[in-house]
């Protein structure tokens, strides 16, 4: 069975590395980038099953990025499950995330069991 590919955009290397280790342990293949612009660049060339987007990133944040993903001409990519990772959930309501186009939200400090659960749920429909 081929590994499911996860794209993580997170500017904190600590969180990025932890999430990477945990998901690799669950047999996912991880690609990690630092901002939303890099997400769009790599998404243009490669395929993923799910995207984890930090909300607070330099250059292009998660909110802008998810809107850009949802607007992609490639329908399959435009409909990929996208999960928000946020340290400041107070700034946004759940509705904000849904409206922007996120499938789910993870709040920092990350609950890694929940992370695995969400990634498994959202990529299970294959």
UniProtKB/TrEMBL annotation:
Biological process terms in GO annotation: phosphorelay signal transduction system
Response regulatory domain residues: 5-123
Keyword Phosphoprotein: yes
Top-level taxon of the source organism: Bacteria
Keywords, in A-Z order: Phosphoprotein
SUPFAM superfamilies attached to this UniProt entry: CheY-like (SSF52172)
The name this protein goes by in its record: CheY-like chemotaxis protein
């Amino acid at each position: 069975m081929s590994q499911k590919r996860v794209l993580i955009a997170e500017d904190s290397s600590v969180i990025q590395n932890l999430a990477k280790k945990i998901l690799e342990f669950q047999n996912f293949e991880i690609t990690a980038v630092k901002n939303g612009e890099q997400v769009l660049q790599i998404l243009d060339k490669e395929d993923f099953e799910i995207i984890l987007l930090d909300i607070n990133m330099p250059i292009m944040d998660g909110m802008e990025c998810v809107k850009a993903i949802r607007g992609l001409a490639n329908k399959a990519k435009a409909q990929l499950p996208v999960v928000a990772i946020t340290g400041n959930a107070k700034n946004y309501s759940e509705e904000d995330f849904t409206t922007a186009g996120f499938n789910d939200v993870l709040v920092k400090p990350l609950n890694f069991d929940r992370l695995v659960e969400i990634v498994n749920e959202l990529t299970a429909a294959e």
